[in-house]
From TrEMBL:
Keyword Membrane: no
Residue ranges of the TM segments: none
Family of this protein: Belongs to the 3-oxoacid CoA-transferase subunit B family.
The protein, known as: 3-oxoacid CoA-transferase subunit B
One matching Pfam family: CoA_trans
PANTHER family per the UniProt record, alphabetical: KETOACID-COENZYME A TRANSFERASE, SUCCINYL-COA:3-KETOACID COENZYME A TRANSFERASE SUBUNIT B-RELATED
Organism: Pannonibacter anstelovis
Keyword Cell wall biogenesis/degradation attributed: no
SUPFAM superfamilies: NagB/RpiA/CoA transferase-like (SSF100950)
Keywords: Transferase
């Protein structure tokens, strides 16, 4: 029995909620994995803040064109109809509300939707970067993350202790244990691993989990 989801399984679950034709930005690192798991019959249009819209899968090793990279400096391919453009135009798309979804990683998410995902102190990433714009420019902001830190502390908390990326911006969190919505300043549990009791999940969550109807089983394929 799975004790927690792998990163690939979390990314798979998040991908199931992306609608056909949605304009989507995936955060650097772990969130980029979401692009691998588009459901059959659906195609998202992926945006990268350094100026590409409609890029495709990573090229085969040795076939990279290093003039075509995403914001994480990883090589990409272009799909028919892709476009590339100035960095300023890319941010105009973000700030103008033209992205349907942004899926980001997190160090902390608060029950009011605050997001902290860029700083862990003096040795952390030196600046918030484009995540701040994505957090408030996208129509929907979702987070994918392990449910707890490497030392077992909750990532879902009453209030963030780290510097904020965005205020009240997150509406759904996909974790290694559950799918949780943020509504009216509360964590609302939607799905959890079948073998995990509500009490055990609450013990690993730093704020109260609220129920609004039945809680579905969080089921994903082996990946």
């Amino acid at each position: 029995m799975t004790s927690k989801l792998s990163n690939a399984q979390i990314a798979w679950r998040a991908a199931q909620d992306i609608t056909d034709g949605a304009y989507v930005n995936l955060g650097i690192g772990f969130p980029e994995m979401v692009a691998k798991f588009q459901p059959p019959g659906r195609e998202a249009i992926f945006h990268t803040e350094n100026g590409i819209l409609g890029f495709g899968e990573a090229p085969a090793e040795g076939e990279e064109d290093w003039d075509l990279i995403n914001a994480g400096k990883k090589a990409v391919t272009l799909k028919p109809g892709s476009a590339f453009f100035h960095h300023a135009d890319s941010f105009a798309m973000v700030r103008g509300g033209h992205l349907d979804v942004a899926i980001l990683g997190a160090y902390e998410v608060a029950e009011n939707g605050d997001l902290a995902n860029w700083s862990t102190g003096p040795k952390g990433v030196p600046a918030v970067g484009g995540a701040m714009d994505l957090a408030h420019g996208a129509k929907r902001v979702a987070v994918i993350t392990d449910h707890v830190t490497k030392d077992g502390k909750p990532k879902l908390v009453e209030r963030c202790s780290l510097p904020l990326t965005g205020v009240g911006c997150v509406t759904r969190v996909y974790t290694s244990l559950a799918v949780i919505d943020i509504e009216k300043g509360h964590f609302v549990l939607r799905e959890k691993l079948p073998a995990l009791t509500l009490e055990a999940l609450q013990a690993q969550t730093g704020a109260k989990l609220h129920l609004d109807g039945p809680v579905a089983d969080l089921t994903v394929p082996e990946l």
